Each structure stands twice: as C-alpha cells, then as structure tokens.
Fe2OG dioxygenase domain-containing protein
Amino acid sequence: MAPMIIQPSISVKTLSESPNLKSIPSNYVNSAIYPSDSPTSEPHDYSNSIPTVDFSQLISTDLHQRSEAINILNKACQNWGFFMVVNHGIPENLMKGVIDGTQGFFDLKEEEKKEFEGKHVLDPIRCGTSFNISKEKVFFWRDYLKVFVHPHFHSPSKPQGYSDIMWEYCEKSRQVAKGLLDGISEGLGLEECYLEKALDMNSGFQIFIANYYPRCPQPELALGIPPHSDHGLLTLIIQNQVGGLQVQHQGKWVHVNALPNSLLVNTGDHLEIFTNGKIKSNVHRVVVNNTSPRISVAVAHGPSLEAIVSPASPLVQSESNPPAYMPKKYKDYMEMQQSNQLHQKSILEQVKIHRK
C-alpha cells in the first residue's frame, strides 16, 4: 500500500483530528529530509541553567539592582541568545486570555479561517499551515496566524473579543521589549536609548504569531518548526502548559521548561547584525508530542520596516573588528526570509561579509 500523501489545503489541526489517524502522511516525515534535525535523541539537560532576567530589577531606580540585571541580561544574550523574563508586569489573566483567544481562533471552521489566508508574505493578516508550502517538499506539523500589529494594528475579526485582547497584550509586550533593548544597549556600552533611536523603534515593526501544534501520532518523525533563527531584534513567547520549544546551546539541543507566567525571549538576526556579531541570534526548533496540542504566541519586535540595518558604528572601531554584515533594509530581509524555506541561519548567511 502506497504511503498516504496529503496536500496541505487543510489545517494540520483538522488532519490530526481525523478518525483513526495512526500514522502521519509521508510528506510530513521530516526525518528523511533533515535527519540531524529530527527529534530522535533526548535533548541535553541544561534546562535548569537557562538564564532568568528579573524585569522589575532591570527597570528599577535602584542603580545597583539595575546594574546587576543589565549584567545578567547581556550575559544571557551573548552566551545563550535566549532567556526567561519574570516580574515583567504583564498580568497573568491577560496572558491566559491571549492563549484562550488563540485556541478560539484555531477552533474556527476551516472556511472561516480561510477568510484570513492572505496571499503574500507582507499581507498584514495571514493564516496557514507549515511555514511556506509553496517552497517545501516536506511540511511541518503546525498551523499559524501572523498579524502585523505595529506601527499599524491589524487583527482578525474572529473570534469575538480576540482583537481587543491581542491589542492590549501587544502594547504591554512592546513596553517589555523596550526595557530589554535599553538594557542591552547599556550592557554594550552604548547610551540607554541608542538602539531605540538608531533603528527608529517608535515606528518599529511588531508581528503577532500564533502557533498551533496538534497532537501527532508519530512525533519522532515530524517537526513542529525546523531549526531556525528569527528576523528582528527580540521575540517574546508565551505558551500553554505544553512544552516543545528547544534552543541550541553549545551545539546541543536544550528543552525549555518555562517558569510559570514567564516570557521566553529569543534574540533575532537583526540584533546580531546591529551588534556586529557580539550577540548571536538564537537557533531554536519546536518538537511535537502524541498527547496534547501545544499553543504558543510569539511576538517579534524589529526595527522600522524602512530602517537599513547594519553594524552600529561604535561597535565597529578598528581593522581588527570590521563590519561583518552588509547593510540591508529590514523590510527586504524579512520578505526574503518569509519567502524561502526555513533552515538554520540561511538568510543571515546571505548578508554576512565573508573575508579571505
């Protein structure tokens, strides 16, 4: 009997809810294409050593507390490119409301979700499945909703109330991102607002990405999302109580066990470009399971879409430390990443300057 092949015209959620689904279609089997990326081995247990930043100390008027928090933040950025944020001031019930609203969106009927499909990677509302089905031979066990929320706010009209809670959450997460970026600027020896001014963060691009990873009958063969780094500066992530995010650290995969009510934060490619490689963007992936669906909401914070991003001049000061990345408009970089297959740091490699 030939292996089952499903064209991704339906969501993975609908596929996963098919009666008697015992195996995944062959075009969702990622182990054949990316054997080194597939979650066949246990991740390394560094999970207890993932850095934690206390946001209340980072914005404290107590200079000693703030200095300590900036030190922890910058070590986390340079050593991990990933950290958890606690005491961030975003209410627990608001975070829960975002996750519940996201569940409500993915619970809509297929024809209702198709209203928000979008045609182009720069459409302000776009929902679909996998990552980029026009380029992929093998698909990922994931459905998504991507919404541009700043400098102009967009949102789907369903389910009722989702738009309001999305707006409130995005406003608050932007305040946290600003506090983190100010701390990173200071930790690099720059003025507190250097990064904010240089990249026109008042017009900064913010995108709300809701992910649904259904229960999978063969999780060892599938991937929710492959190893990749994010565009932009920082991505703030919340999730339901189901894990699956893994980050790369010292060449090993580390399973992220999130602290209750914490924000998970990835550094993005444009932070690597802006700091001339002093901070590296984090490579991460999502694995799936056969018991419970995972919901995550990632809010990515980037420069203004029109900003041309290149290494900051104070961080490029001598012949021994020349610019390592070519200048590129953020909008063009993001379009390039979203229009291609997602794999490691393949897009960042294209703007790297390779010297002999």
About this structure: Residues 41-351 form a domain with the Jelly Rolls fold (CATH 2.60.120.330).
